[in-house]
Amino acid sequence: AQTVTQSQPEMSVQEAETVTLSCTYDTSESNYYLFWYKQPPSRQMILVIRQEAYKQQNATENRFSVNFQKAAKSFSLKISDSQLGDTAMYFCAFMKHGGANNLFFGTGTRLTVIP
Amino acid sequence: EAGVTQFPSHSVIEKGQTVTLRCDPISGHDNLYWYRRVMGKEIKFLLHFVKESKQDESGMPNNRFLAERTGGTYSTLKVQPAELEDSGVYFCASSQPRTSGRGDTQYFGPGTRLTVL
Questions:
Q1: Mean pLDDT calculated for residue range A80-84
Q2: How confident is the model at residue B103 (pLDDT cuts 50, 70, 90)?
Q3: Is B42 close to A47, i.e. CB distance below 8 A?
Q4: B82: closest CA of chain A, how far (Å)
Q5: Model confidence at A97, in pLDDT bands (50, 70, 90)?
Q6: Rounded distance between C-alpha atoms, residue B67 and residue B85, angstroms
Q7: From CA A33, how far away is CA A99, in angstroms rounded?
C-alpha cells in the first residue's frame, strides 16, 4: 500500500519570502506520479505541480518548484516570493503509473502568508 | 471550459436519514472519482468510474454507500442510512481518458460538506 506523510500541519511565511513544505511517501512501485494540490479557503482544490518519477529533473511552475529525491522518497514543494493568494491548504499526493488511477493523499499543510 | 461541479455545497442531516450527493465532471472526461476527507485526516479514495462502469470501488466504506453514473455523465453518491462517522467533505474529481496521455491529472470539484447529527 502507498502512504503519504506531511509532517507539518501548519506553517506560516512572510509575504515575498520563500517557504518549503515537506512530503515523504512510501511505495514499492518504481514508476509513479507525484502531485501538489492547493485548496484556498472556501475554494476548490487545484493542481499546483506534478512530477513523473522517471524524470530526474525537478518540476517547476513559475514560483513553485519541487525537490524530488526518489531514493529518499521525498517530494518537497518550494514556494518563492510568497503572495497572499498562496494562503491555502496544500496536499501532497501519489499515483501509481498504470493500473489504478486513484490518488493517495497526505493529511495536508495549512500555509498562511503573512502580510 | 466548465470545471467539476458538485451539489449541494453543504448538507446537514440527522443520523438515519438519506443524502444524495451529485457530481458533474468536466465534459469529455471519462474518468470520475469520489474521495472523502474526514476532519483532520487525509483525503481518501472511495471509487472510480470509467464512463458508466465502476472500475474500482475498493475504498467504499460499507454497503450504506451507493454510487451511480448512469449514461457516463454525472454521478451520484447516496448514503443510506447516514451515520455520525459519515461526516466529512466529499470530493469529486474527473480526468481525461488514459489514452489521451493526460489521464493522470485529476481536476477536483469544490466538495460537499456533509454533517450528520
A1: 97
A2: low
A3: no
A4: 24
A5: confident
A6: 18
A7: 12
